[in-house]
C-alpha cells in the first residue's frame, strides 16, 4: 500500500497523517552518549561500577572524544527527527586531572561546539559513581560528612555547567541526579540515609538557574545494593512534590516488574508540569537493554499522546549493551521510540476516549483492535523519506557494517 492510500485509511477515522508527521518531526529525543563507550567516560580510571555493569566485548568501543563524536554522528545519520546528546560529567574533555567537584563549563565547550555545528541539544548528568569517593557504596547519603560534601559540590558544579550550556545553546538543559546509594543486605537503619540525602539535595538545589530543568532519578535496586536503595521512587517523588522546580524522572527499567511507567505518567500529569522520562527495556532484573518497539513502549507513547503531554514529557534514552554493535544499538533504540510515538499519534484517541466516557467498552475494544492493523508501516516509510533517512533497517545496517569493518575493528 502507498502512503496516499494509507492516508485515506486513517482519514476515515479522522486522523490527519500530515499533521501527525509534522508533530513527530518536532519531538526531541535525548540520546545518551554512554552507549558508545560502555559508560567509561574520559577519565583515566574509566569504567562503570557502583551498581552499574556493562556486559560484552564487541569490538570498536569509542576511546576518546573524537571517536565518540564520529560514532554519534554515524548513528545520527540514520535517526529521524530532532536529536539531543545526553552527557555525563565523566565525559569532560581535556579535564587535565581536575576532580569532579572542580569541573567547569570549559571542560565541555568542545561538546557545545559539536552540538551547535550539528543542530543537537544537550542534557547533562552529574556522575556519582565509578569514583574513589563512593565510600561503602554511598555518596550523597554517606554518614561521612566529607564524602557528602564532595558529591554535593560535584552536583553543584554539574548544575552550573548545565546552566552555561543552556545559555550558550539558547535551550534549557535537563540536569539529572542519579546516585547508586544503598545496601546489599537488609539495613538496620533505613531512615538516616534518607535524611542525609534530603539534606544533601537541599544544598545541591539551593541556587536556581534559568537554563536548567532539575530532576532526580529513582531506582528500585542495583547490583550490589539489592536490599535497599536510598533514592527510592517514593523518596524522590515526595522530594519533587515538596520542592517546586525539581522533578522526579521516570526510568521504565527502575521499578518492580509488575509496575509500569505507562500508568505512572497519567498519575503524575495532574500534579507536575514536566515529567522527565528515560526509556529503556527491562529484562527480568536488568534495566538497560536496547529499546525495542514492544508493548510497553507503545503504551508509554500512547499515554504521552493521549495526555496531550508531548510538551510536558521530556524524552531521553538510557541503555548500554557491549555485546552488539554500539552504533546499531543507538539507531535501533531511538528509531523504536519514534515508531512508538508515531503509532500513538495514529490512534483514534478521541473516538476511544468518547467510547469509554459513554461506557461503550465493547466498542472501545473493537476500535482499539482495529487500529492495530491500520497501515502504520506506510506512514513510517513516508516519515523516514521526508526526514532523509532509510526506512528499511537493511539499508542503514549495511552502512554501519561497513563502518564497523573500516573504523571500529581498527581500534
Q: Can I get a quick summary?
A:
This protein is an alpha/beta fold and 411 residues long. The protein is built from 14 helices and 12 strands.
End-to-end separation in angstroms reads 44 Å
Number of strands: 12
Task: Report low-confidence residues grouped into runs of 5 or more.
Answer: none
Gyration radius from CA atoms, angstroms: 22 Å
CATH topology category name: TIM Barrel
Q: In CATH, what is the homologous superfamily?
A: Divalent-metal-dependent TIM barrel enzymes
Sketch the topology as an H/E string, one letter per element. HHEHEHEHEEHEEHEHEEEHEHHHHH
Average pLDDT metric:
95
Which strand order spans the largest sheet, edge to edge or round the barrel? 4-6-8-9-12
Largest sheet: 5 strands, parallel
Structural class: alpha/beta
Q: How many structural domains does the protein architecture include?
A: 1
Q: Could you tell me the strand content as a percent range?
A: 5-15%
What form results from the Cα inertia axes?
Answer: globular
CATH architecture descriptor text: Alpha-Beta Barrel
Helix amount, in percent? Answer: 40-55%
Please tally the helical runs, counting DSSP H or I stretches of 4 or more residues: 14
The CATH first-level class comes to Alpha Beta
Amino acid at each position: 500500500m502507498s502512503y496516499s492510500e494509507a492516508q485515506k485509511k486513517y482519514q476515515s477515522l479522522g486522523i490527519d497523517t500530515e499533521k501527525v508527521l509534522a508533530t513527530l518531526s518536532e519531538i526531541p529525543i535525548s540520546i545518551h552518549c554512554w552507549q558508545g563507550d560502555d559508560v567509561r567516560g574520559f577519565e583515566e580510571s574509566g569504567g562503570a561500577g557502583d551498581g552499574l555493569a556493562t556486559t560484552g566485548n564487541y569490538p570498536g568501543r569509542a576511546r576518546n572524544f573524537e571517536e565518540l563524536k564520529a560514532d554519534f554522528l554515524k548513528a545520527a545519520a540514520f535517526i529521524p527527527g530532532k536529536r539531543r546528546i545526553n552527557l555525563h560529567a565523566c565525559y569532560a574533555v581535556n579535564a587535565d586531572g581536575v576532580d569532579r567537584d572542580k569541573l567547569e563549563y570549559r571542560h565541555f565547550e568542545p561538546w557545545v561546539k559539536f552540538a551547535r555545528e550539528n543542530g543537537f541539544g544537550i542534557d547533562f548528568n552529574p556522575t556519582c559513581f565509578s569514583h574513589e569517593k563512593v565510600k561503602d557504596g554511598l555518596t550523597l547519603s554517606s554518614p561521612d560528612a566529607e564524602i557528602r560534601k564532595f558529591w554535593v559540590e560535584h552536583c553543584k558544579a554539574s548544575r552550573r555547567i548545565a546552566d552555561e550550556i543552556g545559555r550558550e545553546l539558547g535551550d534549557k538543559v535537563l540536569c539529572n541526579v542519579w546516585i547508586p546509594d544503598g545496601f546489599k543486605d537488609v539495613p538496620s537503619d533505613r531512615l538516616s540515609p534518607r535524611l542525609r540525602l534530603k539534606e544533601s539535595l537541599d544544598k545541591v538545589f539551593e541556587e536556581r538557574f534559568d537554563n536548567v530543568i532539575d530532576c532526580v532519578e529513582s531506582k528500585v535496586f542495583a547490583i550490589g545494593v539489592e536490599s535497599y536503595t536510598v533514592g527510592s521512587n517514593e523518596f524522590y517523588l515526595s522530594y519533587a512534590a515538596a520542592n517546586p522546580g525539581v522533578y522526579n524522572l521516570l526510568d521504565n527499567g527502575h521499578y518492580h516488574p509488575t509496575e509500569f511507567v505507562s500508568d505512572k505518567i497519567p498519575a503524575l500529569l495532574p500534579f507536575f508540569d514536566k515529567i522527565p522520562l528515560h526509556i529503556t527495556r527491562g529484562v527480568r532484573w536488568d534495566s538497560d537493554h536496547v529499546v525495542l518497539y514492544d508493548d510497553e513502549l507503545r503504551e508509554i507513547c500512547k499515554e504521552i499522546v493521549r495526555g496531550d503531554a508531548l510538551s510536558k514529557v521530556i524524552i531521553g534514552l538510557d541503555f548500554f549493551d557491549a555485546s552488539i554493535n554500539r552504533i546499531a544499538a543507538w539507531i535501533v533504540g531511538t528509531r523504536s521510540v519514534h515508531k512508538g510515538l508515531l503509532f500513538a499519534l495514529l490512534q483514534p484517541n478521541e473516538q476511544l476516549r468518547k467510547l469509554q466516557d459513554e461506557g461503550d467498552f465493547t466498542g472501545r475494544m473493537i476500535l482499539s483492535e482495529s487500529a492495530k492493523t491500520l497501515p502504520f508501516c506506510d506512514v513510517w516509510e513516508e516519515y523516514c523519506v521526508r526526514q532523509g533517512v532509510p526506512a528499511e533497517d537493511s539499508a542503514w545496517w549495511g552502512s554501519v557494517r561497513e563502518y564497523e569493518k573500516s573504523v571500529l575493528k581498527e581500534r
